[in-house]
UniProtKB/TrEMBL annotation:
UniProt entry tagged with the keyword Oxidoreductase: yes
GO CC list: plasma membrane
One Pfam family linked to the record: Cu_amine_oxidN2
Record-linked Gene3D superfamilies: 3.10.450.40, Copper amine oxidase, catalytic domain (2.70.98.20)
Protein family per UniProt: Belongs to the copper/topaquinone oxidase family.
Record flagged with keyword Cell division: no
Domain (Copper amine oxidase catalytic) ranges: 292-564, 566-654
EC number: 1.4.3.-
Required cofactor(s): Cu cation
Protein name, UniProt field: Amine oxidase
GO biological process assignments: amine metabolic process; response to antibiotic
InterPro entries (UniProt xref): Cu_Am_Ox_Cu-bd, Cu_Am_ox_TPQ-bd, Cu_amine_oxidase, Cu_amine_oxidase_C, Cu_amine_oxidase_C_sf, Cu_amine_oxidase_N-reg, Cu_amine_oxidase_N2, Cu_amine_oxidase_N3
Organism ancestry: Eukaryota, Metazoa, Chordata, Craniata, Vertebrata
Catalytic residue list: D364 (proton acceptor), Y452 (schiff-base intermediate with substrate)
């Protein structure tokens, strides 16, 4: 366990309403609120009206144009925010961050702008990166327009292969309305800076097409802004490489190509679908509803715009389009314990025999995983009792887009008490029993980045513990099975290889423990072998606590494994020009990205009594197996971490809860009369067992 600051510890865990979080402008949390649809539209309209920018709509037209790609909140500086929150200073200027693609110029690039003041913007300024250089145009994320052009180029290039594809798969690209082929693209898109060469995995377009590769992978070069200059550079089919479409087509025409013939997909009970099939051996019913969450006396949390309150907790939250959930001004008992807690990046590194598999290193911030927050299903993704919130994103669009039910908030019974004790009298009875039910408040969203679904949770516990957690589910990223591929995963279906990969998720934790001036030390268990002071000649082996102050950033970077600079935990001094550990551009330019986390540590600054940020990496290795069909299940595929108070309070702060039960016998040893103390109604209501709480306690 690593101590962050003084009394807060960070420990690794390896293992019915409709509303919108539109903030009340009078609430202090509103300075962190996402931009409203009106604000998003105002920023877009303002930028489009600036003649010097020469902007065109994002949809349609050529790739070589100037267009707005993303608009989201630009959070205020920490200094101005704290001056407002703590000292009654002026409300910080509200601004937007806009990402603009400048493709219609001699040296195309991507530029970020700060636009404000909102709600009526009148000016903009360029936002620079720490390294002080422009983002190359080749590092830009993919757009809907580029995907449309990519599909057109692929269909045209695949025309000579139509006989092969129809014979082998029964599906095709040409004049297709049904029984079509599609593709999944992988990244990085090349082997060095400036490249934009993408391997495309060809798949049959059926339900769960991610699990239906056709055996063909195509390397398409789309670096030039003019799609007429795009070309297929290489192909891989059923374990063999081909230098051109013509070479592969001629091999098939000569009859020298070993075809990978795929069986006809069934009309029902397709293995990649969610349709029920088979029966459980026990015969217990699954056609009826299972256990449900209920709120018998109403909600025990308060949601006002983007401010969330529960027990001792209070925080502001937002769902930023670029990278997802972000908490601000996290307080317990009225005292701030963290200024910011946010998701930074989700990475998946793959291995495989096919070129697409060996090239896949997904960095999901590059796919704007925060804007992949599609609708949460009531009763499945969140309990029926949850409060559902909409989100609005302006990403690769010419106006704000509403994402219905993108977040949810609910109180969750943990199924285990927060704490309990049975005080045994060792004579068949007890002195007392006491327990406090285990519950937590959950703030949840999801990111569906093509095949994978990430479920992002922040959990607030009544004892001052905060948990950050992510579950991985959805379809595995799979490739066509060849015997050589077995080295890199499992054969999960007849023609399907589940490729080995590692998930890594990065979080930013800006702790403010009793103020912003914090230090960092680690605690480790060591053992000593000493003479027994009360028995001459005997020895005692016992643990002791070794505390080690970490005074500089290099000392506070704890690696997952050497020599790669990938850190389990790193603590750095906070700087405004280091707001994120990754960026939306890293996916398509990982060789020379505008944000490199190593630079945060490289200067090796002192971290004693400073404003500190803990950067936390959690993850797991996934060796796919047949049980990942149709989807990876959440049990066993969740990771996260806890923020825990460590000598911060005088006692467990959950003693303020009025939910405990205390039982004392009034007439031991007969135990015929019991005193039951409760501070909540005797019966919670009709949604659970209708009888009042009772207890016996004898054995």
């Amino acid at each position: 366990m690593w101590l962050l600051g003084l009394p807060w510890a960070l420990a690794l865990l390896v293992t019915v309403a409709y509303s919108s979080p539109s903030a009340d402008p009078l609430d202090r949390a509103s300075i962190f609120a996402d931009l409203s649809p009106e604000e998003l539209r105002a920023v877009w309209t303002f930028l489009m009206g600036r003649p010097e920018l020469g902007l065109s709509p994002s949809q349609g037209g050529p790739l070589a144009k100037n267009s707005v790609f993303l608009v989201e909140l630009l959070p205020p500086t920490k200094r101005s925010a704290l001056r407002f929150l703590e000292h009654g200073g002026a409300r910080p200027r509200r601004e937007a961050r806009a990402i603009v693609f400048f493709g219609a110029q001699a040296e195309p690039n991507v530029t970020e702008l700060a636009v404000g003041p909102l709600p009526q913007p009148s000016s903009y300024r360029v936002l620079g990166f720490k390294r002080g250089r422009a983002v190359p145009f080749s590092a830009r994320p993919m757009t809907r327009l580029e995907y449309e052009l990519l599909h057109e180029a692929l269909v045209a290039a695949m025309a000579p292969l139509e006989p092969l594809l129809r014979e082998a798969t029964g599906f095709g690209f040409q004049n297709c309305s049904e029984r079509c082929l599609t593709f999944s693209d992988i990244a990085p898109r090349g082997l060095g800076p400036g490249e934009r060469r993408t391997w495309l995995v060809i798949q049959r377009f059926v339900e769960g097409y991610f699990l239906h590769p056709a055996g063909l992978e195509v390397l398409l070069d789309h670096q030039d802004p003019d799609p007429r200059r795009w070309a297929v550079r290489q192909l891989w089919y059923n374990g063999r490489y081909f230098g051109s479409v013509r070479e592969l087509a001629e091999s098939h025409a000569r009859g020298t190509l070993p075809l990978a013939r795929l069986p006809e997909p069934p009309a029902h009970h397709l293995f990649s679908s969610y349709e029920p099939r088979g029966r459980f051996a026990s015969g217990t019913p699954t056609e009826v509803h299972g256990a449900k969450v209920c709120e018998p006396q109403g909600r025990r949390y308060r949601l006002r715009g983007n401010r969330l309150e529960y027990g001792g907790w209070s925080l502001a939250f937002r769902l930023r389009s670029s990278a997802g959930l972000q908490l601000f001004d996290v307080r317990f008992g009225g005292e701030r314990v963290a200024y910011e807690l946010s998701v930074q990046e989700a990475i998946a590194f793959y291995g495989g025999h096919s070129p697409a598999a060996m090239q896949t290193k997904y960095m999901d911030a590059g796919w704007a995983m925060g804007a992949s927050s599609y609708e949460l299903a009531r009763g499945v993704d969140c309990p029926e009792t949850a409060t559902f919130l909409d989100a609005h994103h302006l990403l690769d669009a010419d106006g704000p887009v509403r994402f219905r039910h993108a977040l949810c908030v609910f109180e969750l019974p943990m199924g285990v008490p927060l704490r309990r004790h049975f005080d045994n009298d060792f004579q068949g009875g007890f002195h007392f029993y006491a327990g406090l039910e285990g519950r937590a408040l959950v703030l949840r969203t999801t990111s569906t980045v093509y095949n994978y679904d990430y479920i992002w949770d922040f959990l607030l516990y009544p004892n001052g513990v905060l948990e950050a957690k992510v579950h991985a589910t959805g379809y595995i990223h799979a490739t066509f099975y060849t015997p050589e591929g077995r080295r890199y995963g499992s054969r999960v279906h007849s023609h399907l290889l589940g490729n080995i990969h590692t998930h890594l998720v990065h979080y930013k934790v800006d702790l403010d423990v009793a103020g912003s001036g914090n230090s960092f030390e680690t605690m480790d268990i060591r053992f000593e072998n000493i003479s027994n002071p009360w028995s001459a000649g005997a020895r005692v082996v016992q643990p002791w606590l070794h505390r080690e102050p970490r005074r500089r950033e290099r000392e506070a970077a704890l690696p997952l494994g050497r020599p790669a600079p990938r850190y389990h935990l790193a603590v750095t001094r906070r700087h405004e020009n280091e707001p994120s550990s990754s960026s939306i551009y890293t996916q398509n330019d990982p060789w020379d990205p505008p944000v490199t986390f190593e630079s945060f540590i490289h200067d090796n600054e002192t971290i004693e009594d400073q404003d500190l940020v803990a950067w936390v990496t959690v993850g797991f290795l996934h060796v796919p197996h047949a049980e990942d069909i149709p989807n990876t299940a959440t049990p066993g595929n969740a990771v996260g971490f806890f923020l825990r108070p460590f000598n911060f309070f005088n006692e467990d702060p959950s003693v303020a809860s009025r939910a405990p039960v205390i039982v004392r016998p009034l007439d031991p040893p007969t135990f015929s009369r019991l005193e039951i103390q409760r501070w909540t109604p005797p019966s919670p209501g009709a949604c659970v067992h209708p009888e009042p709480f009772t207890y016996n306690g004898t054995y």
